[in-house]
Amino acid sequence: xxxxxxxxxxxxxxxxxxxxxxxxxxxxxxxxxxxxxxxxxxxxxxxxxxxxxxxxxxxxxxxxxxxxxxxxxxxxxxxxxxxxxxxxxxxxxxxxxxxxxxxxxxxxxxxxxxxxxxxxxxxxxxxxxxxxxxxxxxxxxxxxxxxxxxxxxxxxxxxxxxxxxxxxxxxxxxxxxxxxxxxxxxxxxxxxxxxxxxxxxxxxxxxxxxxxxxxxx
Length: 217
Description:
Helices cover 41% and strands 23% of the residues.
């Protein structure tokens, strides 16, 4: 059930950008730089994500609730019987993108819809990923020191994803295609065997993904 559209996502992101520009300026006026700590920036922007995506969903789904109270779902769509968890994240210093959730909450609910917004450091480029019915099996186990947060197993979660902005590239598919092309031009049996091993590796390895962000002006 893909109840979010690209147009709705674009409208919400543009509103988030305008709000982001306003608070960056406000911080600057008080001698602070909001972009010094992107984790903190994303926390500040989390309520804006809920508010503006809820507004965008009204036109698509009718009644939508997003009261922001602690312990309550981020967005509720009574007409569809859906709860939507909103997450905002940015690449870490190593370039990786972690799609996390609170394990206890997901365990209690059984399954939930998720809206992950990936933003760059300047809040100009984005990927918007809408997941339907994610469950605990789509995430890794809780580890010591994780404070109850678990990362998504992307090879499982992406099966339930509708990419609204940006793109999700399966690295396995790229490598399989690359090695199959090289197999056609291989000159020796030993070279062909090595290439077949590469192809088998990427065909049997759980899917790895690269997220490409889209500029929103």
